[in-house]
Each structure stands twice: as C-alpha cells, then as structure tokens.
Specification:
Main location: cytoplasm
CATH architecture: 3-Layer(aba) Sandwich
CATH class: Alpha Beta
Keywords: Cytoplasm, Initiation factor, Protein biosynthesis
Family: Belongs to the eIF-2B alpha/beta/delta subunits family.
Subcellular location: Cytoplasm, Cytosol
CATH superfamily: Translation initiation factor eif-2b, domain 2
Radius of gyration: 18 Å
CATH topology: Rossmann fold
Protein name: Translation initiation factor eIF2B subunit delta
Length: about 110
Amino acid sequence: AGTAQVALAAAASNVPVLVACETHKFSERVQTDAFVYNELGDPDALIDKNDENSPLKDWRSNPNLTPLNLTYDVTPASLVTAVITEKAILPCTSAPVVLRTKLTEYGM
C-alpha cells in the first residue's frame, strides 16, 4: 500500500507515475474512497510494541482512536500515466479490456 499517496505527490509536481501491477490484481469491484471491498489489516501491526515511549502504545484505552491499517490502497486512474504488467505497458484505459480478457480466459 502507498501507491495512491505517491501518485498524489507526483501529480502535484507534474511527474509521470508508472505503476507495476500484475493483471490478477485488476478488479472492477474496488471503489475509490470506500472500505466496502478494501481489506483491513490488524491495527496492532502499525504499533511498535517495543517502543515504551510510543504515544500509540495504549491506543486501545482511547475510545476516540482506532488506527486504520489498509491492506492495500486504490489509486485513481487519473493519477497514473501507465501500468506495467506481465502482459505489456498499458494505459489505464486498457484495464477494462484486461478484465474482459480475463473473463473470457476463464469461460465466464
């Protein structure tokens, strides 16, 4: 996770963004800015339990604080210049074609 943040910073500086991604990770179900399908990881994985001085050490005792550990993030296509896959270097507009091809390969 982290591609979306890098892409936002690059867009602000007019720097092209190339994303390396296997085509099996392409999905039409993921929604930008939604937790509906995004997987959440263990919030304790974000906390360094060996650091006695960590301000997050006792986060569970604060009812107003819940660390959010996203397993992956969603990068809007508008921020990506091209996607490097095992098939080819593709523009983001080709993602639907890849999805249709995958469905055809699996007989769906």
